[in-house]
TrEMBL record:
This is Cobalamin biosynthesis protein CobD. Keywords: Cell membrane, Cobalamin biosynthesis, Membrane, Transmembrane, Transmembrane helix. Converts cobyric acid to cobinamide by the addition of aminopropanol on the F carboxylic group. It is a multi-pass membrane protein. It comes from Ralstonia soli.
Amino acid sequence: MSVPTGGVGDLGWSLVALAALAGVLLDRRFGEVPRWHPLVGFGRIATAIEHAMNRRPAALARSRIVGLIAWAITVLPFVLLTAWLAAVARTASPWLVVVLDAVALYFAIGARSLHDHIAPIALALRDADLPRARALASRIVSRDLSDAADEPIARAAVESALENGSDAIFAPLFWMVVAGAPGVVLYRLANTLDAMWGYRNARFAGFGWAAARIDDGLNWIPARLTAMSYAVLGQTVGHTADALRCWRTQAPHWSSPNAGPVMAAGAGSLRVRLGGAARYEGVDEARPPLGTGDRATAADITRALTLVSRTLWLWLGVLALIAAATQSLS
């Protein structure tokens, strides 16, 4: 007998669609939890484990093994706990599983937070308030924007909106549909560890290897579904053919196997030029170009957020249609 964990396998499409909508609406109404967010506590645990297990230099292979063990110690207990809670809820009522899935999705998804962090950058650029625009953009990207002009700031904001749309919205939603609350927890914690450990520097090149590769694996399907959604919606906010062409020709040159398709398709759909030069820790990095058309402006930031929002409602609409179809066939 399989252990119920939520998702389509246990709940069916109708209840999964309801849980997804409830989680999105909770995020829309309340936004990010201002205090006592579970991920803050998880981050402290992850930091303590990393400090304990990554204290001295080691051979690359050994460091990777230690990093994998650290990843398992950090993530799996929370996933197993969530799976146990889902199993207990399932024995009582499927509606409790819906509630658990919706709450897990609410804590993992970041649609409102993404808008709240990025939309003010467009407003600052429109008001010609460069210092404020630089400060706001520096909160969401790691590149150096201390003396940036309008275009690099707008480009950074558009790239962040498109990429984080996949990481912070569509991937958690995908894993909720596939595996319920345990899938959401697995994805969000793995993604958090990638952000904390997945650097290619001396300290994390080996230790963070597992965190980076696991996150890549968990994001592979959601990223391509997101890229396809951006391309499809190009008919309403941009150009589908351009999106598909940019995805095909430009994404393979991008360093990230998942960010490349997402940002290339998004940039092509919006017909805006992204990628290119960016400064990190005082060093200029020549990144491959993405997209086509004009340079990024404040208006493109708003258009990118619109594309992400419409993609979210597209996904919810598809879930609702699948639920309705399965109901009519049952």
